[in-house]
């Protein structure tokens, strides 16, 4: 079975935001319209994300649709750090507040959709939310970024990433001289070592070891 066939599915990328005692957001890639009358959307969220718990508590959210104008910093900010550890909106200014009191992202996004959760389905590692659309607005005419576009044009190449850290030139944990590294095909995180544990979970995007590719330099 070729697991890469899953990457041929066409889907977009989004910043899901919610609010309790603070604002928070995370990256998701599963949002779709499920009915038009009534207008409803569905999306899945990993249970490890704080945004997941906030959405379970409040049931209200905004979904900002990422466009091809987005840069990797947007994905780093909302996808590669946990809202349980940092305040993602403390040093972030590229947003406005919608009528539901929740922020939506203005830079690198072409629209946002506000919604209220009507149903949930437990998927084990994720929860699938079905929600009614309560508001929406087009922000820009830029083309929506697909997952394939992210892989080809936004995500930095493995050689441009510090091992286990962030984008830049190789400094810490350099991988020259035949060293083996494992590169996450989803977000570009680099794990250095000859063997990758079977139960390894990417600390950035939370994908499993099966989504890592072995690279020898």
**Mean pLDDT over the full residue set:** 88
Structural class: mainly beta
The H/E string reads: EEEEHEHEEEEHEEE
The beta-strand count equals 12
Basic shape: globular
Distance between the termini: 28 Å
Into which percent range does the helicity of residues fall?
Answer: 10-25%
Placed side by side, the strands forming the largest sheet appear as 2-1-5-8-9-4-3
Largest sheet: 7 strands, antiparallel
Beta content comes to 35-45%
Poorly predicted regions are 163-176
List keywords for this structure.
217 residues, mainly beta, 12 strands
In summary, what is this structure?
Helices cover 12% and strands 36% of the residues. It has 217 residues and is mainly beta.
Describe the structure.
This protein is mainly β and 217 residues long. The protein is globular. Residues 163-176 have low confidence and may be disordered. The longest helix has 9 residues, at 50-58. It has helices at residues 50-58, 72-79, 147-154; strands at 14-19, 23-28, 32-36, 39-46, 60-66, 95-97, 103-105, 109-122, 126-138, 180-184, 190-192, 212-216. Strands 2-1-5-8-9-4-3 form a 7-stranded antiparallel β-sheet. It has a 3-stranded antiparallel β-sheet with strand order 11-10-12, with no helix packed on it. The chain is built from 3 helices and 12 strands; from the N terminus they run ββββαβαββββαβββ.
């Amino acid at each position: 079975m070729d697991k890469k066939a899953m990457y041929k599915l066409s889907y977009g990328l989004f910043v899901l935001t919610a609010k309790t005692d603070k604002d928070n957001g995370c990256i998701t890639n599963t949002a779709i319209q499920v009915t038009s009358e009534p207008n409803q959307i569905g999306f899945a969220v990993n249970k490890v994300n704080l945004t997941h718990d906030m959405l379970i508590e409040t049931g209200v959210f905004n979904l900002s649709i990422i466009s091809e104008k987005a840069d990797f910093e947007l994905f780093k900010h909302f996808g590669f750090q946990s809202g349980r550890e940092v305040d993602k909106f403390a040093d972030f200014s590229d947003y406005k507040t919608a009528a539901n009191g929740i922020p939506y992202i203005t830079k690198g996004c072409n629209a946002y959709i506000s919604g209220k959760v009507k149903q949930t389905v437990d998927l084990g590692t994720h929860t699938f939310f079905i929600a009614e659309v309560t508001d929406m607005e087009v922000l820009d005419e830029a083309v929506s970024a697909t997952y394939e576009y992210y892989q080809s044009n936004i995500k930095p190449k493995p050689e441009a990433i510090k091992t286990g850290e962030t984008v830049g030139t190789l400094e810490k944990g350099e991988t020259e001289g035949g060293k083996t590294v494992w590169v996450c095909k989803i977000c570009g995180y680099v794990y250095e070592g000859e063997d990758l544990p079977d139960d390894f979970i990417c600390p950035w995007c939370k994908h499993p070891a099966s989504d890592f590719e072995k690279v020898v330099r």
